[in-house]
Write a structure and sequence with these properties.
This protein has 223 residues and is α+β, with helices and mostly antiparallel strands. The chain folds into 2 domains: 1-44; 53-219, no CATH class. 29% of the residues lie in helices and 26% in strands. Strands 5-4-6-7-8 form a 5-stranded antiparallel sheet, covered by helices on one side. Strands 3-2-1-9 form a 4-stranded antiparallel sheet, with no helix packed on it. Helix 2 (125-134) runs parallel beside helix 3 (155-162). The longest helix is centred in the N-terminal third of the chain and has 46 residues, at 2-47. The protein is elongated, with a radius of gyration of 31 Å. The protein starts with a helix and ends with a strand.
Length: 223
């Protein structure tokens, strides 16, 4: 009887030992897989490039507002204006239109103030002139063309835009593509402006030049 009991106990202990060893091997394999997966995920995160506001290529310094904008593409895709990761105007928002598209932003806080578009092909320039005159000092002004932004522009409207810091507005012609960022009360010419002429020999689209894009960091208005 004692011998049988000893055999049973020995078999039990041996079985328990085998099961524990198999379980430990599986645990080690699972843990190894988990740690390997975690290491790969961490490596992927470390190699993924950081994303900056509005998708610009580098971060803005303190007391600057990130912006990115693009003109319209022919008469098909509207312009897009983004400031501080806020899409202010785009075709998706359904607040763009033929002519000159304008977004106003508070120069101190970066908060959006207003968005409007003015038809410079079939519309009247007078409401655009009144709008430009009503802009308050210290306001950031962003503009982008869509389809045609120049036909109805007169000298008064061009002068008001030039006072915002534009240098290309005097040469803006029929179906040119143009984006601009300036400010009311600016003392110098703005460095943020892109202009491409409508030229049948170089146009990317039939009757229209390629899209112009621009990004940068706007200095915050100081008291």
């Amino acid at each position: 009887g004692a011998a049988k009991l000893a055999v049973v106990v020995a078999i039990f202990l041996f079985t328990f030992y085998v099961i524990s060893q198999v379980f430990e091997i599986k645990m080690d394999a699972n843990l190894g897989h988990i740690f390997a997966r975690s290491a790969l995920d961490a490596a992927a995160r470390s190699t993924k490039p950081p994303r900056y506001k509005c998708g610009i290529s580098k971060a803005c310094p303190e007391k600057h507002f990130a912006f990115k904008m693009a003109s319209g593409a022919a008469n098909v895709v509207g312009p897009k204006i983004c400031v501080e990761d806020n899409i202010l105007m785009s075709g998706v928002k359904n607040n763009v239109g033929r002519g000159i598209n304008v977004a106003l932003v508070n120069g101190k806080t970066g908060e959006p103030l207003d968005t409007k578009f003015f038809d410079m092909w079939g519309g009247d320039v007078a409401p655009f002139i009144e709008f430009l005159k009503s802009i308050q000092d210290g306001t950031i002004v962003l503009m982008g063309t869509y389809d045609d932004g120049a036909t109805k522009l007169n000298e008064e409207a061009r002068k008001l835009i030039a006072d915002l810091g534009s240098t290309s507005i005097t040469n803006l012609g029929f179906r040119d593509n143009w984006v601009f960022c300036g400010g009311k009360g600016i003392k110098t010419k703005s460095p943020f402006e892109q202009h491409i002429k409508n030229n049948k020999d170089t146009n990317k689209y039939e009757g229209w030049p390629e899209v112009v894009e621009m990004e940068g960091c706007i200095p915050q208005k100081q008291d």
